[in-house]
Amino acid sequence: MAELQPVSEMSERDALQELARLAKALLQANAAYHQLDAPQISDAEYDALKRRNLEIEARFPALKRDDSPSDQVGAAPAEGFGKIRHAVAMLSLENAFEDSDVADFVARIRSYLGHEGALAFTAEPKIDGLSLSLRYEMGVLVQAATRGDGETGENVTANARTIADIPHQISGAPDVLEVRGEVYMAHADFAALNARAEAAGEKIFANPRNAAAGSLRQLDAEITRSRPLRFFAYAWGAVSEPLASTQSGAVARLRALGFQTNPLTRLCSSAEDMLAQYRVIEAQRATLGYDIDGVVYKVDDLALQRRLGFRASTPRWAIAHKFPAELAWTRLEAIDIQVGRTGALSPVARLMPVTVGGVVVSNATLHNEDYIAGRNSAGAPIREGRDFRIGDWVQVYRAGDVIPKLADIDLARRPEGTVPYVFPETCPQCGSPAIREPGDSARRCTGGLICPAQAVEKLKHFVSRNAFDIEGLGAKQIEMFYPDPLLPIRSPADIFTLAARDAANLAKLANRDGFGKRSTDKLFAAIEDRRRISLERLLFGLGIRHLGEVAAKDLARHYNSWPALIEAVDAALPAALAHLQADAAEAEERAIAGQQGRRAEIAKARAHILDALDLPEAARAAWAGLLAIEGIGAVLATSLVTTLAQGGHERAAVDALIAELREIIPPEARATQSPVAGLTVVFTGTLEKMTRAEAKARAEALGAKVAGSVSAKTDLLVAGPGAGSKAKDAEKHGVRIIDEDAWIALAGEA
C-alpha cells in the first residue's frame, strides 16, 4: 500500500481528491458492515479512515463535502435518546436462590393452574448484559429500544444496527415481530477493549456488562460500532401472528430467522430436571467466554403462559435461579455512615480493593448496627457473635452477583488493639438525634428536610426515572443545585420556580459551565412539561417511606384524585397516631415479656391503647378505607398518613409542590367496556373451572376490584361449592351471589 500523504503537506486540490476517496471507501465499508453484515475492513482500518477524513476537514473546512462521512455515521442528537413506549411491557423476573425456591416455583405454577399432568419448562443461561427489543416490520428492522422502566425505553436504533448479531432484514417472519434478547460483551473482547483504553489513558470498564451497557447507550453510534457487542435472542414482544405454540418452538423459530440463541437452552419436565440443567450450566460458567449470573426457567406451553399472566412487575410463568455469590477476603479499612432519603443511617464498609466475581470491590454494605455487632434484631448472636472491627480481615461476597456484602471475620488475623465499632447516635450530616423506633433495625436521623443528606436524596428520588423523570435534571444536577447560593433547589417546589428565579437573577444559568442557552431552555421546558403529572408518579416521587411504585398505583386507582387522597389521609391521622402508640406499647410489653412469651398480654396492651383513645368515627372510617386497599397494610398506611397529615416541613413542602402543578392526571382504568369493571368482587368456596388465583387475576384485568372479605361495599360474591361464612355475610348485606358459570358468562369469558 502506498504511503499516505501527510495532511499537513496537502494542497486544496490534494485534499479534495483525498476527501472523495475517503467518502467512497467509508460508504462501501458502512454498507458492508451495517447492511450486508460482512465487514470488508477491520475496525482499526475503519477508524483510521474516519480520523483522516476529520483531520482533512479540520484543516480545510471549506472543502467539507455535503455527503461527508463525518455527518452520516454516528451523528449524536444533542437532546440525547428519544423514547419508545413498548407495545408489550418488558418486565423483570422473580429470583430464586435455593433449590427449594425452584421446587416452590413449580408447585405454585401447578397450584395456580390446578394442573396435575405433564408440565414442561425451558432452562437457559441468564445472560449478564443489557435487555434490548428489536421491532421488525415486513422483515425490516425499524426500531430498537432498551428496556428502560419496562414501559418506556431509550431509542437506540442506530446503535443496534451496528451490532453484527442483529440482522437488518429477515425473511419468513410475521409482518410485525419484536425480538427481545440481551446485548453482551465476550470476555476476550472486553479484555481487549480495556487494554486499548488503558493504553490510551482512558477510563476502563469494571466488567463486561457495564461495558456493553455503556457502549449501547452512546449518543454517537460510531462509538457503539467500535465496541465488540453481541446479541442473544430469547423472547419476543408484539407479534402479528404467533411464532409457535411453545417457548422452545418460538426460540427455535428465532434461530431459523437468523438470530443467535443460546445453545445451552434445554427442555425440562420437572424441578429435578431443571436443577440438573442448572448444575450443567453452572459447571461451564467459567469457560463460556461471557458472563451469566444464573439460569432462567420458563413454562414451555405458551397457552399456559397466557393463563398464568403477570404480577405487577414480573411474569408468573418464569423465574431466574441465581448462582451463589462468589467470595473473597480483604481488609476492612474504615466504616462510613451514609444518610438516605428516609433518614436511615446506613453503614458502608471501605475495603482494600479486591476482585469478587470479576469485579473490583472497594465498598460493601454492613446493613445496620446490629449486623456490625454480631447480633440480629432480636439480640441473638449471628456469626457466633463475631463483630466487625476496623482493621479486620473480612469475607466479601456479592449478593445475587450484584451487591457486595460482608459475610464473616477471620479472628486469627485480627490486629491487636482493635476496638468494637461504636455506632453514632447523632446524624453525621446535620447533628440531629438518630433514633431507633420500636421494631426498626435502622437508626434514623430525626432532622427531616433540615438534614441536607435526606433532602438531597429525596430530591434525587423525586427526579428519578419512575417518578417525575425531568430530562436534564438528574442526580448530578441535584447535587449541583442544592447548595447553590443563587438558584438553590432545596425542595421539589423549587424545581418549578427555577425558571422564574433565573429570569429575575443577573447570574443566569445559561452563563454557567455545563449550561448554554439551548440546554437551559430545554431544561426549563422539561420542567414545565412535568407540571402535568400522573397521580401514581406524584405519589411515588414524594419518597414516602415504604411507598413503592406498586403501592402508589394502588392508591392512585383507589382514590383517583389528589384531593380525595389527601382528604382521607388527613381524616385518618388520629388512627395512625394511635397505631404508633400501640406499636410503642407492644414493643415495651415485648421487652418485658420476652419475644416468645405472654402474647395474649401483648395483644391486650395493644388493643387497650386503640380502644382507650376513643377515635372519631371519621378517623376510623378513613383508616379502614386505607387498609381495605389491596396491598396497603398498617405499616405503609401509618407512614403515609404521618408523613402527609402531621404538618411541619414535610407537609409544607408537599403543599408547595401541589401549588406548582398544573394537572394531576388520574390513572387509566384497566378496562372500561367490561361488564364487571368497577365492581368489588369476592370469591369463596371451590372453583372448578379455574383456580382462585387465576380467577382473581382475570377479574382485576377486567377492571374489577377483588376483595378478601364481604362488606356493604361488595357488589358481587362468586360462590363455589363449600362456600361458608362469606355467603352468610353476603346475604346479610344484600350482596348479589352467583356461581362460577354465571361469573364466567358475566365476565365475557364463556
List the helices and strands and how they pair.
Elements: H1 12-35, H2 43-59, H3 69-72, E1 83-85, E2 94-96, H4 99-113, E3 121-127, E4 130-137, E5 140-146, E6 152-154, H5 157-160, E7 176-184, H6 187-199, H7 208-216, H8 221-226, E8 230-239, H9 247-256, E9 266-268, H10 271-284, E10 292-299, H11 302-308, E11 318-322, E12 327-339, E13 345-356, E14 359-365, H12 369-373, E15 393-399, E16 403-409, E17 434-435, E18 444-445, H13 452-462, H14 475-481, H15 492-496, H16 498-503, H17 517-529, E19 532-534, H18 535-541, H19 549-559, H20 562-593, H21 599-612, H22 617-627, H23 634-645, H24 648-660, E20 663-665, E21 680-684, H25 692-701, E22 705-706, E23 716-719, H26 725-733, E24 736-738, H27 740-746
Helix pairs in contact: 1-2, 4-10, 18-19, 20-21, 20-22, 20-23
